Amino acid sequence: MPLQLQKPAPQFSTVAVVNKEFKEVSLKSYEGQYVVLFFYPLDFTFVCPTELIAFSDRLADFEKLNCVVLAISCDSQFSHLAWINTPREEGGLGDIKLPLLADKTGKIARDFNVYNEETGIPFRGLFIIDKAQNLRQITVNDLPVGRDVDEVLRLVQAFQFTDTHGEVCPANWKPGSKTLAPTANGIKSYLKTPNGVEENKRTRPEGVEKNLIKKPKV
């Protein structure tokens, strides 16, 4: 069955390495939380450790959003553990907080449509799954290019905002910036100001009004 946004994500259960211990992990166990599930090609490679370490370093930011981050490849849990136990100066992951899931048969990668049958490894697929376990975002990178952790975090924040407030997030939205109602009047109101940003005179420092340069009307 093809993947579809707003529909349930494929369920899975597998062994993961969590804090250097083997643990059974299932998607179902994270119901009620947001989940970022990202596939990476292979242990002991080159772009992959930069991604895993970057996500691990920002794990607390995702946890504040009640969001779990899971990394998965078609390596075994034993390979994952060996990579974690390898120092970073030797190409290993070292002390990493991120759970590493094992998909030795490639079934999970196939279910998420990121498995490369020619090479036997997954592409860099990333999936954002909401509290109801529905797919909200799907991206797939070719192997040479890693993911942007800040952008993934922004997307989780954006989807959670829309879940809670019912408004929608425009281009380049970041937490605290303007949103709009998904109506004809909503977009009209948003587009009245440059880049959808309203200037609030009350937030200007005292005296700024006097120093503003008045442009000639042309």
From TrEMBL:
One of its GO terms (cellular component) is cytosol. InterPro entries: AhpC/TSA, Peroxiredoxin, Peroxiredoxin_AhpC-typ, Peroxiredoxin_C, Thioredoxin-like_sf, Thioredoxin_domain. GO terms for biological process: cell redox homeostasis; cellular response to stress; determination of adult lifespan; hydrogen peroxide catabolic process; response to oxidative stress. It holds the Pfam family AhpC-TSA. SUPFAM superfamilies: Thioredoxin-like (SSF52833). One of its GO terms (molecular function) is thioredoxin peroxidase activity. Its EC number is 1.11.1.24. Residues 197-218 are annotated as: Disordered. Residues 3-161 form the Thioredoxin domain. It is an enzyme of class 1 (oxidoreductase). Coiled coil: none annotated. It catalyses: a hydroperoxide + [thioredoxin]-dithiol = an alcohol + [thioredoxin]-disulfide + H2O. Residues 198-212 have a biased composition (Basic and acidic residues). Keywords: Antioxidant, Disulfide bond, Oxidoreductase, Peroxidase, Redox-active center. The active site is at 48 (cysteine sulfenic acid (-soh) intermediate). Thiol-specific peroxidase that catalyzes the reduction of hydrogen peroxide and organic hydroperoxides to water and alcohols, respectively. Belongs to the peroxiredoxin family. AhpC/Prx1 subfamily. This is thioredoxin-dependent peroxiredoxin. It comes from Cimex lectularius (Bed bug).
